[in-house]
C-alpha cells in the first residue's frame, strides 16, 4: 500500500453532473462498413456509492501497515508519476506507443543510463506536439532559417531528442519554466524530479492537441482505415476489434479463408497484450474513453483511497 502526502478532500455531498465531460461509454467495436462508423450510445459514468457524512465524534485511530517499497520512485511522487503513466497508457494507440508496465516506467524514471523507454516516451510526445504545431502553421524561427530549424525539430530520434526538447522549450516564453529542469544537469540523467516535471509538461501539451481531443470525443467509436495495412489496397476488409486496422483475409498471419465468427484482433493488438497491463485493467476502464479515475472511498479521518495500477494508495 502506497501512502501519498497530498491533501485529501472529503466531499460531504456528491452531486451527479450530467454535463461532466468525463464519461465512460460502452460501445461496440464491430463495424459492418469499412468506410464509416455510427456513434455509440452515450452512457453516464458509473459512480461509486456515496460516502457517508462525516460525524464529529470520537473514533479510534486507524493504524496502517508499513507502506510497500517495491517501486523505485519515492512515495511523494507516486501520484504525479501515475498521472503521466495513465495518459501514456490510455493514449498509447494515437501516440503509437506500445504498452509497458508501471514498474518498468518507474525504473526508467530513476535510471541514470541510456534508456530506450525514456527516449520513446519523449519522442512520441514531441512528435505529437510538433504535428499539432505544424497543423497550426507555427514557425519556430525567421523565414530564411525555417528549413534549418525544421530539420532540427523533425529529424528527431533516440539520440537527438534531448536537444530537440530544449529547442522547443526555448521557442516560446511560456515554455521557459521547463528549461531549468533540463539545464540543471545533463538531462535525462538528472534527478527523478526533473524528469517528472518535463514529462508533465509534455503530457499537458499533448492533451491540448486535436488528436487527443478527437480521441476523447470519439466515445469509443473506432474510425477504421480505408485500405489494408499490409498491401494498402481496397476491397473486402476484415476489421480489428480493438484498433483501426483493416486487412484482407489473405494478408493476415496466418491467412484466413473466411471471416471469423468470434471477435478478431490483429497481430499488433495481440502482441500488445502485456502481462501486468492489459490483464489488470478494471472492467469499467475498458469502456473508453475512460478519462478520469475516481477514489474508491474515504475513511472516517477524511483520507482518500485510490486503487491504481494494482495498488491501494492512500
From TrEMBL:
A Pfam family found in this protein is: PHD
Q: Which SMART domains match?
A: DDT, PHD
Q: Which UniProt keywords apply?
A: Metal-binding, Nucleus, Zinc, Zinc-finger
Residue ranges annotated as compositionally biased, kind Acidic residues, are 1-21
Q: Please list the GO terms describing molecular function.
A: RNA polymerase II cis-regulatory region sequence-specific DNA binding; zinc ion binding
Q: Which PROSITE patterns does the record associate with it?
A: DDT, ZF_PHD_1, ZF_PHD_2
> Region (Disordered): which ranges?
1-62
Q: Start and end of every DDT domain?
A: 75-135
The biological processes this protein is annotated with in GO are: regulation of transcription by RNA polymerase II
UniProt GO cellular component terms = NURF complex
- The name of this protein is Nucleosome-remodeling factor subunit BPTF-like
Amino acid at each position: 500500500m502506497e501512502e501519498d502526502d497530498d491533501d485529501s478532500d472529503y466531499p460531504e455531498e456528491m452531486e451527479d453532473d450530467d454535463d461532466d465531460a468525463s464519461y465512460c461509454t460502452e460501445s461496440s467495436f464491430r463495424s459492418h462498413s469499412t468506410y464509416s462508423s455510427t456513434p455509440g450510445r452515450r452512457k453516464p459514468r458509473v459512480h461509486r456509492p456515496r460516502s457517508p457524512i462525516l460525524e464529529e465524534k470520537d473514533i479510534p485511530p486507524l493504524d496502517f501497515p508499513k507502506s510497500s517499497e517495491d517501486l523505485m520512485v519515492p512515495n511523494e511522487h507516486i501520484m504525479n508519476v501515475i498521472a503521466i503513466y495513465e495518459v501514456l497508457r490510455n493514449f498509447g494507440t494515437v501516440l503509437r506507443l506500445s504498452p509497458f508496465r508501471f514498474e518498468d516506467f518507474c525504473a526508467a524514471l530513476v535510471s541514470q543510463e541510456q534508456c530506450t523507454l525514456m527516449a520513446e516516451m519523449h519522442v512520441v510526445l514531441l512528435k505529437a506536439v510538433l504535428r499539432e504545431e505544424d497543423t497550426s502553421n507555427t514557425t519556430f524561427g525567421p523565414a530564411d532559417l525555417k528549413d534549418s530549424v525544421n530539420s532540427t525539430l523533425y529529424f528527431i530520434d533516440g539520440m537527438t531528442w534531448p536537444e530537440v526538447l530544449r529547442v522547443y522549450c526555448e521557442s516560446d516564453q511560456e515554455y521557459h519554466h521547463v528549461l531549468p529542469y533540463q539545464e540543471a544537469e545533463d538531462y535525462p540523467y538528472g534527478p527523478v524530479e526533473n524528469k517528472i516535471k518535463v514529462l508533465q509538461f509534455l503530457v499537458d501539451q499533448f492533451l491540448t492537441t486535436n488528436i487527443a481531443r478527437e480521441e476523447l470525443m470519439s466515445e469509443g467509436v473506432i474510425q477504421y482505415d480505408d485500405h489494408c495495412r499490409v498491401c494498402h489496397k481496397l476491397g473486402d476488409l476484415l476489421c480489428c476489434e480493438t484498433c483501426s486496422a483493416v486487412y484482407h483475409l489473405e494478408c493476415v498471419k496466418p491467412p484466413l479463408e473466411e471471416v471469423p465468427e468470434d471477435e478478431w484482433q490483429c497481430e499488433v493488438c495481440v502482441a500488445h497484450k502485456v502481462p501486468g497491463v492489459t490483464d489488470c485493467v478494471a472492467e469499467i476502464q475498458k469502456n473508453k474513453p475512460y478519462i478520469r479515475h475516481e477514489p474508491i472511498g474515504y475513511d472516517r479521518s477524511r483520507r482518500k483511497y485510490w486503487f491504481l495500477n494494482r495498488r491501494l494508495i492512500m
